[in-house]
Amino acid sequence: MAFAWKAAGLTYNRYLAVAARAVRRSLKEQPRLVAERRGEMDLRFAKWEGGKQGENQNLAQANASAMSGSAGQGHN
Length: 76
Fold this sequence. Notes:
By secondary structure, the protein is mainly alpha-helical. 57% of the residues lie in helices and 11% in strands. It contains four helices and four strands. The strands form two sheets. The protein has a two-stranded antiparallel ribbon. The chain has a two-stranded antiparallel ribbon with strand order 2-3.
């Protein structure tokens, strides 16, 4: 017997994300806000050069700035 999420073509991680979002949306206002904040991710990275760790950077902000920088340089 196949699982419903597999039959729908979802990965298990995607299924869990959809289920968690449905549960968070069903909560009352205050608990929902707390749960939504807990569900946010904050990924950081550091570039290493010459055996030394560089400054920690927020991944979302670094991607946004890189995308805006490359958007101005028309690629053919």
